[in-house]
Amino acid sequence: MLIKLDVGGFGSGVLAPVIKDVPYLNKILPDSVTEEVSTEDSQYAYTNLDDAINRIKELEIELADAQNSANSDADYIAQLEEKAKELDTYKQNEADFEKEKEKWYEDVVFSEDAPDISNYKEYYESIDAANAEVLYKQVVEQTLTDEQMDDYVKTYSSMKPKEAAAIFDTMTDNLQLVADILSNMDTQSRGDILGKMNSDTAAKVTEIMEPSE
Predict the structure, then answer these.
(1) Do residues 199 and 170 make contact, with C-beta atoms less than 8 angstroms apart?
(2) Cα 160 → chain centroid
(3) Percent of the chain surpassing pLDDT 90
(4) How many angstroms separate the CA atoms of 6 and 59, rounded?
(5) What is the pLDDT of residues 131-145, one digit of tens each?
(6) Backbone angles phi, psi at 44, to 5 degrees
(7) pLDDT at 98
(8) Are 10 and 59 in contact (CB under 8 A)?
(9) pTM of whole model > 0.85?
């Protein structure tokens, strides 16, 4: 095919001087080749058929290698470009997801109007621990704190105000806890206990619950 199409002058310059006078074999030469073409007139003159055929084989191999190399480079570059685009898309999607996740945590999980935090505990246990570790710990700690506080409130609310006040008066090293317990009690129980406490201690606890400006 390369010979008939005279690609690179193979037919007219390489083979014509050698096989133009060979019956049947000269039919593979380009149509433009005439019997007037001679070895002396060609810059691609070869003295025998074997040399010409060997050179054609060499050139065909070089051409195939060049084409394969060019195709490989083009394919490789195309693959890299596609991979880069996919990576950029992935990075952008990942960044958007992280922003949405953080916003969801802030607006839904820990907002003032959020559902009870215990509703999320099971959810955090079911998702990837690496991504949820920090928030999961916060939820668990908050859940434990809420449960402990409920127990404290129930315990002291069931006691007589004088008895609860006596205990609170001894907790001068942890008045924040006293204030938290009283804050979670109903108004009546809280007032009854504060009324039975040491006045100085009661004043400090009240200041913690309702700090003055």
Answers:
(1) no
(2) 59
(3) 23
(4) 13
(5) 556 666 666 666 656
(6) -110, 40
(7) 72
(8) yes
(9) no
